[in-house]
Amino acid sequence: MNLSHLYYFRKLVEVGNYSDAADELFIAQPTLSLAVSSLEKELGAPLLKKKRNGVELTEDGEEFYTATLTATNALDSSIASIKQRAENEYDSIRLGAVYSIQSPEWSRLISQFRRTVDSRLHIDVRQGTTSSLFRDLKAGEVDLIFSGIPLGGDSEVTSIPCFTQGLTLVVNEDCPLASLNKISLDELAGLRQQLISYTLKGGPFETELSQLLESHPRLNVRCNYSDEITLCSLVVADPGVIALACHSWLVSTFPNVHTVELVDAPKDFHQFYMSYRKRGRKALAVEAFLDMAKNYEFINVSPAYNEDEEPAGK
To answer: DSSP 3-state assignment of 159?
Structure first.
């Protein structure tokens, strides 16, 4: 049964004559007549009786009109609801991000997305640690997150490599090492300064830092801290303290520190990921963001590597 024919029949009954109904439907009168004839032929019963000034429903027509009205009203309501939900799904997107990834390059990614969708779309950003953001993601409180990934991953979440950061040596501007531009990890082993870095007990850099220290066993590092802010603040407080830290924009906010390139440390020391839930229906704005981000050329977001950078992955 043709859905358009149901709407034609409904309109004809409401208006009462073929000519006016055809005008309101923006179709030719013969097209309307053919649609009604097709319904009657399919049902095997007449639905309308012609009168001098219009049409009148037969007994079967009364029953069919009631059913048609119920069906088309339900369909109209569903269509309106779906369209409204689709509009709402382009109203906002909820992103989660660790502090250190929110660099100018991260902002450019968001800006590019804005150019592809309605400018009225609201982007809500929740900051947190990798562990807290994963909890928020799985609880449905955010749609996508940019962070590290838990050790061993998470079976409920898809994680795609995105930005990376390099490792740098952070020193106080009054430290003798502040005059250097480069140094090797092996050279750090013989220095008198206290070397500190990230925790190896479940922290976001556990795997990368453990591998680095295993390949340089002479390094004596105090691994007690969780973020660059803490590491830099301790370096600022004491010229005798130096730190192995990811070179994020957070390091650059401290005016009293100097960064020294580690010549034998991996340039892409820390890998960030864009993560989202595997199951469940995604809002249209989220799907649009994923489609764009999957083709985005992610780079190393450490300040030292922003110029002349090659893409780190897709």
So the answer is: strand
Beta-carbon contacts of residue 117 (< 8 Å; ≥ 6 apart): 90, 285, 288
Which amino acid appears at position 259 of this protein? T
φ and ψ at residue 54, rounded to 5 degrees: 165, -140
Would you tell me how many other CB atoms lie within 10 Å of the CB of residue 130?
A: 22
pTM of the model: 0.68
Question: Which residues make Cβ contacts (< 8 Å) with residue 228, sequence separation at least 6?
Answer: 100, 170, 245, 246, 248, 250, 251
- Give the Å distances, CA to CA, from 264 to 139, 186, 227, 268, 269: 40, 9, 22, 12, 11
- Cα–Cα distance, 144 to 16 (Å, whole number): 54
What does residue 85 show for φ and ψ, rounded to 5 degrees? Answer: -65, -40
Query: Please, which pLDDT band fits residue 271 given cuts at 50, 70 and 90?
Result: very high
State the pairing for strand pair 221-225/182-183.
unpaired
